[in-house]
Structures
1.
Amino acid sequence: MIVKKEIYIPLVENIKELVTISEKDIQLIIDAFKPKELAKKEILLFKGDTSNHMRFITEGCLRSYYINEEGQEYIVQLGIKNWWVNDLFSYLTKTPAQHFVQALQPTIVLQVHRDTLENLFKTVPVMERFFRIKMQNAYVANQNRTLKSMSETAELRYLNFMKKYRDIEQVVPQYMVASYLGITPEHLSTIRKRLHQ
Amino acid sequence: MIVKKEIYIPLVENIKELVTISEKDIQLIIDAFKPKELAKKEILLFKGDTSNHMRFITEGCLRSYYINEEGQEYIVQLGIKNWWVNDLFSYLTKTPAQHFVQALQPTIVLQVHRDTLENLFKTVPVMERFFRIKMQNAYVANQNRTLKSMSETAELRYLNFMKKYRDIEQVVPQYMVASYLGITPEHLSTIRKRLHQ
DNA sequence: AGCCTTTCTTAAGATATCTTAATTTTTTTA
DNA sequence: TAAAAAAATTAAGATATCTTAAGAAAGGCT
C-alpha cells in the first residue's frame, strides 16, 4: 500500500505540540498509524462493536453519539481535523461500544490499534506521556462542559460554542449542534431567531 | 516527623488496583506522598492559588467547587476515602485555580507535589501508567455525567446518584448534592418528597 | 431543472425547573 | 441545654425548555 506522507503531517504536528520527538520516532509513529478513508455518513464504529483503535482526524469531520432506549440520539463529541475521536470507554475496557462514531463529511482518520500502541509506548516512551497529557486536557475540557451544561442557559452555551468551535459549526448540521448542546433543534432555532433580532 | 504507616494503606491499595508495584516501589511512593490533616470546613485549595499537588483522600470528605460572577456555587466534584480530588486544570497548567477544594468532614489527604511526582515517574515508571489510566477512567465517568445531565431528568439523576454514591450521600449536606446534580436545593427537596410518597 | 429528502423554522400548549419567601427541622456553638 | 446558625421543606408564581405538528427552505440526486 502506498501511503501519502502528507496526510500524517497533522498527526505529527499534533504530537509535537505536547512532546518532543525525533525523526526516528516520527517514522515509528507513522508506521503505527494506519489511514482509513470514510465516505460522508459512513459509520466508523458501531454500537456493540469493541473499539480497538485510537483515532485521529486528519481530514473531515466525525461525530460520536449514543442512542437511548427511546431511540433519541445524543451527541457526545464533535470533531474536525486535528481532533481525537473515539468511544474511549470501549477502547479502554475492551467492552462493546456504547456509542457510534460516524463521518459527517468525507473523512480521513489515522488509527492505531491498541496492541500496536502498547508496543509504540515501548519504542517511543514519550508517547505514553503524550496520551496522558491528552487525556488530562480532554478531562478538563469535559469537566467544564459538564459545569456549563448545568449552570448556563442554552443561549449562553450556544454563544460559547460558536465562539469556541466556529470551524465545527460551519460543517455540522444545526440539529446536531443542538444535540451536542443538550437541547432540541426547535429550541436552538428559537434561540437563533432571538439572537438575530 | 513520625508518619503512621497505616494511613498509606488506602493509597497503596488504590494504586495496586490498576498496576503492579514492588515493596521497593511502595516505599518510594510513601516517601513521595505527604499527609495533611484538615478540619471540617477547612479549605485545602483557594481559588487563585496554583494547585501544585495531586491529592488522595485517605479519610474524610472533600468537595471541589467554583463560584461564578453572581456568587453562586457549583460543585464540580464530591469525594470520600479512596478518591482523588483536585483542580486538575490548575495542576496541569500551573495556572491559578478556578475552584476551591474544601473539607466537608475532618479529613486526611495524602498529597504529592508535581515535582516530586515527576521524579517518582522516573524511579517508578509504572506510576505514569497509573495516572494515565486514572485520568482515562475519570474522563469516561465525567463524559457520562455530562451526557446524563443533558438527557435525564433531575429525578432520574438523583436516583442514579443515590445508587452509585450512597456513601457520599450519607455525609454531604443535601444542598450540596443538589449543586452537584445541577439543580436547586428546593427542587431536590420537591423530588424527594415525590419519591417518598 | 425538477423532484425527493433532509434540515430549519414557527407557534401553541405542556412540563420541568427556578425564584422567592416563609416556616420547620436539624446541627452547631456558647 | 438554650440560643444561634445552618439546612431542609413547602408553596405560589415565573421562566426555560420540550413536545407536537405543520410549513418553508435548502441540499442532493437523476
Note: Residues 126-151 of chain B form the longest helix (26 residues).
2.
Amino acid sequence: MKKPTKTDDNITSAEKKRATSYDVAALAGVSQSAVSRVFQDGASASKAMRERVMAAADQLGYRPNAIARGLITQRSNMVAVVISKLTNLYYPEVLVQLTQRFSEQGVRVLLFALERESDTETVVEQMLQYRVDGILTAAMFSPEQLETIDNAHIPVVLYNRTASGHIVNSVRCDQEEGERWLVSELVGAGHLSFGVVEGPPDSVVSFERKTGALNELRRLGIDDITTVSGDFGYETGRECFAELVEKHGSPPDAVIAANDVMAIGCIDEAREAFGLDVPGDISIVGFDGVGPARYSAYALTTVRQPVQRMTQSAASMLLERIDNPELSPEKRAFSGIPIRGRSARLADG
Amino acid sequence: MKKPTKTDDNITSAEKKRATSYDVAALAGVSQSAVSRVFQDGASASKAMRERVMAAADQLGYRPNAIARGLITQRSNMVAVVISKLTNLYYPEVLVQLTQRFSEQGVRVLLFALERESDTETVVEQMLQYRVDGILTAAMFSPEQLETIDNAHIPVVLYNRTASGHIVNSVRCDQEEGERWLVSELVGAGHLSFGVVEGPPDSVVSFERKTGALNELRRLGIDDITTVSGDFGYETGRECFAELVEKHGSPPDAVIAANDVMAIGCIDEAREAFGLDVPGDISIVGFDGVGPARYSAYALTTVRQPVQRMTQSAASMLLERIDNPELSPEKRAFSGIPIRGRSARLADG
DNA sequence: CTCCGAATTGCATACGAATGCAATACTGCC
DNA sequence: GGCAGTATTGCATTCGTATGCAATTCGGAG
C-alpha cells in the first residue's frame, strides 16, 4: 500500500462529482489516454498499467461515459425499436426477445411505443437526434420518413411489414401463405360460407392476412364471404362475431380472424351469445400462435409465427447492416407453423 | 435570396456528413452559438435570426445531436426501464404505457430486458455508463446495486417491489390487501381446504402474494393448505394443479394462484384432466386482471391492478425526482380492484 | 441628436473520452 | 553491451453542442 496522493479527502466512493478519466489518470499517475486505453478492448496497455488504472478506477467508482464515447466514436451503440400498442397483442413477447438479442451484442435498445401504428410523426426526429446506429420497426413509416432515415445513412429493418415502393430490409412471417393453408384446409373440409374478421385499418399485417384469405377463397370458388373489422382486441372479436352473424343473416360455416385474440373473442361470443358449438357448428381460426391460443378452452387452429427465429434473424440482420452499411437490402420471409387445434373441423386427422 | 457562400456544392440534402451546428451557422452567416440558441426553448434570438437559421438548417437537413447535447448539459434525457421476461406476463402492457408516459415528457426510454428477475449483473453498469437520468425497475436489485446507483445520484423507482432494508421510492399494488380480500371471500363462502400456487422463487410479487394469502388463511383458522410453485406460465399452472391434487390427496376446495395465467392453467387442468366443474366443484382465483382473465371461458375471480394509475404515478414520481433530486423517498401503494368473476363461489351475490 | 437600458449576438471554453503521431520503454539477439 | 524492432505511453486534437461573459445593436425617451 502506498500513501494516497497529497490532498486526498479519502472519500470512500464517488461523492461529489462523477469521476472522469482525468481523475483516474491523476490518481494513478498516468495520462488520460492510458485510462482510455485500459477501458477498451483491443488497445495496448501493459499489465502494470492496467492494474494501476483499475485500482484507481474503482477507488473512484469510475466508469466510462458512454455519451462522451459515442460523441467521439460516432457510434451510439443504441438501436431504436418501434412498436405500436395496438399493432398486435403478441408484440410484447417479440420486444423482450429483441432486446435480449441486442443486449448480448452490447447494443442498447431505445424504445418507442406508439399509440397507433400510424403515429410516427415525431418518432423519426427523435431517433435521428439520438444518433441511433440502426432502427427496427414494427410500425409503418411513410416513404418520406424512410427517405429521411435513408439520407441519414441509418440501416432499417422492418418487422412483419414491407415498404410500399421503397427498397428496404425486412423480416416477416409469410401471412399470405399461412392464410392459404387455413383456407384450403377449411374449404377442403367442406366449409362453404365464410366470415372474415380483419384488424385495424392501418395495420399492414391485418391487410396481408385478409388479402391472403380472400384471394385463396376466391381461387377456390367460394363467394359467400362476409367481412367485418375490429382492432385486434378481445372485445371487438366478440362484437365482430355478432356483427358477422347479423350481416350474413346466420352464422357462416367458418370464421377467419386476423389474429388469435379476436378468434378467441369470436369463439366466446359464438358459444355464449349464440349457443353454438365450436367446432361442431362452426369453425373458427386465428393467426399468431400466441399464449392464449394454447389454452385448452380454445385450443385454436391457427398459424404460429416462428418468433424465436424471426427476432433472431431481425436482430442479426440489423447488426450486420450496422457493421457493413453497404450490404444490399434483403427480405426474409418465414413460413408460419400450422397448428391443428380443436377450434375447426379440418380435412384430415 | 443571397448567393450561397463561396464553395457550395449545392447538394440537396445531407449527403456526405451529418450537418453540424457549425455548418448551419456558416450557411446562415451567423455564429454557432446563434444556431444553438435557436434550437433551444428559452433562449434569446430575434425573429430574423431564427428564420435565417431555420432556413439554413432544413436546407442542410440539420438536427441537433442529442448525444453532444447530453454531454454538455449533463442530462441524457433518457431513463432506464428494467423488466424481466418471466416477472409476469402482464408487464408488456405496463411497459408500453410507461414508455408513452415518458415520451410525452420528452424523455426517452432505454430498455433492459432480463431473462430472470435476478439477472441484474451487468445491467447496473450499463445504465450508469449511459448516464441515464433515472431508473424505473420491475426487477429486483441487490442492496449493493441500489447503493451503487445511489452513489451515482440517480433516482430510482421500484415497480411493484420494495427494497429490503434500503430506503427507496416505489409504486406498487398492495398485493397483501388483495390476497386478504380473496381469502376472506373464499373462506366466507365456506371453503376449508386450500391450494396455493406460487410463482418463481426470485419474484417478489409472488412472495408477497403467497405470504398475504397464507397469513390471512391462518388468521382465519384455516390450516389445510397445500403449496406448490410454478413460473407464472400457463403450462406450469396446469402442472401445479395436478401436483396440488396429488400432494393433497384430493382436489382442495379452492386454489389461489399467484397470477391469472397460472389460475387459467389450473382451471383447464381441473376441468380437463380431473373432470371438475369450476366453480361448482372447486373455486380458483388469480391476480392481475390481465386480458385473458376476462375471456368468458374463464371469467376469473381476481384482483385487478390499476395499471393506468400505477404507470402514471411511477412515471411522474421518477420525473419529479429527476427535476428535484432532494425530494425525500416515497412509497405509493395502490389498492387492487376486486373482480367477482365466475371462477369461484363467493360469499354474497 | 444623444444617451441609457434591454435585447441580441459572438467569442471562447467546457463536457469526457478516443486516437494519430511521436517519444519512450522494453525485448531479444548478436 | 549495443542495436534493431516492437510494445507502451503521452501529447494534442477532435467529436457537436451549450453557456458565461463581453461586445454590439436596437429601441425609445429626453
Note: Chain B touches chain A through 57 residues (CB under 8 Å).
